[in-house]
Each structure stands twice: as structure tokens, then as C-alpha cells.
Amino acid sequence: MFEDLSRKLDAVLKRLRGQGKISEANVAETLREVRRVLLDADVNYKVARQFMDDVLRRAVGQDVLQSITPGQLIVKILYDELVRLLGTSHVGITFSQLPPTVIMVAGLQGSGKTTFCSKLALHLKSQGKFPLLAAADVHRPAAIDQLEVLGQQIGLPVFTKRGADAVTVAKEAVEHARANARDTVIVDTAGRLHVDEEMMREAEAIKAAIQPHEILFVVDAMTGQDAVNTAQAFHDRLHYDGAVLTKMDGDARGGAAISLRATVGVPIKFIGTGEKPDALERFHPDRLASRILGLGDIVGLVEKAQAQFDGDKAVALEQKIRKSQFTLEDFLEQLQEVKKMGPLQQVLGMLPGANRLPANAEVDESALVRIEAMIQSMTSDERRRPQIINGTRRRRIAMGSGCTVQDVNKLLKQYEQMQRMMKTLSRGGRFDKMGRGMRIH
Q1: Ordered strands of the 280-282 beta sheet
Q2: Beta-bridge partners for 270
């Protein structure tokens, strides 16, 4: 997400950090470069110009000019202004006090609208809600089939009425939810390849019929500046409450995210980060600004980890490490937990400094698959006591996992090194210090 934009900004700011003293001249030069980077990322030119004016106004103040570390302060100013541009804070969904809450989802065909409906339903389900999906895209039969399949995958009901018009489907879906104790209705509406009058009239009719508590507009982030133009056209007719940016995992530029909030004036509420049903994140302007500037998103990373890791298991694992009882069985379990957090490329992108990795650098996830296969090819006794693995056992493990004996040797050597490191940390009492630093209240 934003790899190209983040890498270019880092290169520009690196030159400024090298300045012993900051001046209005080198600030202006740096900001011209930043503006060029933003325009390359397909940020709206008016938004880029206003952003640069705001940064420049703050950057030439006396506090910055007399600072010992001017480069860091410029980064801080850029961060503050990016957060303000993106919306300051996360804005959630407005729920009705009298169920069901009706959420209408609109957008162009191919934007990922139907997939988003299922992702949102799963997200709400994880929060204790009981959503109902409504297939009101009656013009494209495949959309109804797709929503039914997605509903089955996430274990949630889908209301359909083939042959009926979209307004009827939406109205009856709300009535069905009310009669069947479903507290949320997510209505998937029709899209077109381009904005047209017929689609808009139908969307307006659905809005008038069901009086949604929330209207979300879904837009493909990879369409760049066109995304902002489409978002404005929909807002002029529907006055939606929030935007959703999909396909952010494939968006190298990021101009749509930066421009949309400033040009349309509605908050971005969610971003789609992949194809899986759980690849949906709440939009946090501060975290996104941090990632764009290469500062990482540690809070988001911790949230991902907390969603996957069991607290009791984590305490038990810590005790094992303290007593040097960490086995290959434990290692396998931790590998499997990490894989649940999503693609490693995305997890890596949340770490500070990830933007300084080489362009197009990819994480070799197949290496983890090989490690997993080798450990699973061991007996329970071998996992608990790797020291018994002799030459014969190594050949058997290699054959069973489709790897070489050299791969098995490398794994066992890395495990021994990890064990020695853990013993050193435990003897030095460093685990206590690490634990105190990592605890979240």
C-alpha cells in the first residue's frame, strides 16, 4: 500500500535531513519535490497545491528555523497536515437505536462493491451484530449468485427475490430483517461501468424507499483521479455518508485516498486490503499518514496480532521461553498464528522503515511453507527433542516434506541458534524488560 509514494517521499526528505540548518529556501525546494511526488501519485492538483501551502506556512515559522533537528520537524509537519487532509480521526458507522440499521452500498460495476458487502457483514458479525445481506443488484444475475456464495462462505443469510425490481427487493429485505431479528441490513445496489442516469435514478428510488441510516460509496482506489470524479458525481445525487476504498493492496500510487476526503468532503470509513473475506480495515487517517511517511503502523500491527493470538497461550509460551522449553512444536504453532495475520508483505509494510526496502521487494512466503512442511514431517518426539534427529531421521524428514537434507540441517541450526539466544535473554533478565515494554493497557 502506497509503496511508490512512500519511497519517493522518503528520498526527498532524506536530502532535507542532511541539512545542518533549515532555511526558507531549502524548505521551498523540498516542498516543490514533495508536490511533484504527490502529483505523480495522481493526487488532485488543487489538493496538492493547498497541502503544500499549508505545510509551507507552518514550515517557515521561527520554531522550525531555530530547531536542532529541522528535518524531523518537517516530517512532523507533513504528518500533521496529511492527517488533517485525510480526516483527522476514524469515523465509524452510525447505527440506529431501533433495529434494523439499514446500510445502502453504492458504486460502479467492478469496484468491488459486492465483495465489500460481504466483508462488511463479516466485520459486523465479529462485533456481535446479526447482519442480513440483500441482493438488490437485479440487473446483473451474476451479482445475486456472487452474493449468495459469499454469504455461504461467511455463514450469513442473503435475501434475494429473483424477478422483482431493486426497490421491492430492498424494501422486503428490511421487512424480512425486522421479522427475523436481524439487526443490520446491507443492501447491495446495481452498478454500471460508468455513471449513467438510469443507475442514479434507481439508487435514488432505493434510498427514498428504505431511508438508509448509512450510505457507503465504494470506489476502486486503483482508478486514481477518476475515482474522485466518480465519487463526486455519486455524492451530488445520493449525499452518501462515507467512502470505501477497495483494492488498496494493489494501489502503488494512493492519490485517490489523499484526494477524496478533501474534494468530496465525506470521511473514508473502510479500506479493502485483499480478496479474503476478512481483508477489510477501518480507515484511520493517522495510521495511513504514518505509513505514507515510512513511520509504520505499529498500532495496526498489534491489533492484527491481538485478533489472532490467544492471551493464555501467549503467557504459556512466555513461561516456556523463560525455562528454555520452547520446542519446534511451539515454533510451528507460532508460524501458523502469524500466517493468520494476512500476507507477510502487508504485515511487513506496517513496520517502520518498510519504505526503504528495494522497489518490488517481495517476501518469500514459500520459505515458511517449507519450514512448516519439515516440522510437520517430524514425529511428536522429534519436535519436542530435536537433538535426537540423526542422519537417518533427517533423510526421512527431507523426503516427507519435499525438501533437501541441507534444508533440514539449516532449520535445525537456526533452531539451535534461537535456543541459545533465548537462554541468554532469560539469564540477563531481559524478558522482564521486554514484557514491560510490550504490555498494552
Answers
A1: 158-159, 131-135, 184-188, 101-107, 214-220, 242-246, 268-272, 280-282
A2: 244, 282
| Each residue's pLDDT tens digit, 321-379 | 556 667 888 777 777 766 666 665 555 555 544 444 444 445 556 777 888 899 999 99
Residues 6+ away with beta carbon under 8 Å from 15: 30
Collapsing DSSP states into helix, strand and coil, what is residue 218?
A: strand
User: Which sign, positive or negative, has the C-alpha torsion 290, 291, 294, 297?
Assistant: positive
- Count of CB atoms within 10 A of residue 389's CB? 21
Nearest residue to 333 (alpha-carbon basis) of 277, 380, 398, 283: 380
Report CA-CA distances (Å) from 243 to 18, 20, 86, 251.
Answer: 39, 43, 12, 16
DSSP secondary structure code for residue 358 in this structure = P
Which of residues 58, 86, 114 is at a domain's end?
A: 86
Cβ(237)–Cβ(208) below 8 Å: no
* Together in a domain, 107 and 63: no
> In angstroms, rounded to a whole number, what is the distance separating the alpha carbons of residues 375 and 387?
14
Whole-number pLDDT of residue 43 = 81
CATH code of the domain in which 365 resides:
1.10.260.30
Cα gap 140→142, rounded to integer Å = 5
pLDDT of residue 147: 94
* DSSP annotation string for 154-201: HT--EE--TTS-HHHHHHHHHHHHHHTT--EEEEEPP--SS--HHHHH
User: CA angle, corner 211, sides to 210 and 217, nearest 5?
Assistant: 95
| Dihedral (CA of 332, 333, 334, 336) sign | positive
CATH code of 284's domain: 3.40.50.300
Please name the amino acid found at residue 11: A
Instruction: List C-alpha distances in Å: 304 to 7, 41, 79, 320.
Output: 24, 28, 23, 24
Q: Which of 420, 428, 431 is nearest to 326 (CA)?
A: 420
Residue 107 φ then ψ, to 5°: 160, 175
One domain, residues 269 and 416: no
Please state, in angstroms and rounded to a whole number, the distance separating the CA atoms of residues 337 and 123: 20
What is the distance between the alpha carbons of residues 48 and 39, in angstroms, rounded to a whole number?
7
Domain total in the chain? 3
The closest of 117, 277, 335, 106 to 202, measured between CA atoms, is 106
What share of the chain has pLDDT > 70, as a percent? 72
